[in-house]
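Bit of a strange request maybe. I'm writing a small parser for structure token strings and I need a real example to test against, not something I typed by hand. Could someone generate the tokens for this chain?
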Amino acid sequence: MNYDEFNHFCGSFPATTHVVQWGGSHVWKVGGKVFAVGGWGKNKQPAFTFKVSDLNFDFLSNLDGYIPAPYFANRGMKWIQQIGTSSELDEELIYYLSESYRIVSLGLSKRKQIELGLNPR
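Reply from user aminoacidic:
Good idea to test on real output. This should exercise your parser:
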């Protein structure tokens, strides 16, 4: 996945905003909370950062193509960075970006969720 594809996919979720910050990274938010970052790759290679469950953090931390996310994971947060760029990882990335969006949106206050039209009961 390249950054254009990443931005297109992240922009398909409801109530998202996109900013370029942190050294030119593509930062996607829902309700003002970050759920995905495209950037920070070594040697100008694409890298994608997203929030995960505790179980997925433990699993992905030991899997080729993934590392605990710089800046996030070292602060105790459960964020992973996909550094592998093979097209075989695109399907996994789509799943984990979707999960990150879900996790972050569910973490918003109920009032904010209602305001944004998210997570109907």
